Amino acid sequence: MWRSPKGQELGWFQHGSTIIVFVPPGFALAPGIAAGARIRMGQAPMRLPEPVA
Prior knowledge:
Elements: E1 28-29, E2 46-47
Antiparallel strand pairs: 1-2
């Protein structure tokens, strides 16, 4: 099996790429995120559900 040398680029997203995220029930959009909003690299699009006390 072919393996890339450590640190070699394997792929990339170009500006404007569409990313589809599937999450289990209970997750919600992070504050400031709305449908169609631009998300910057490193920005969290979702937040974990609040724990039940």
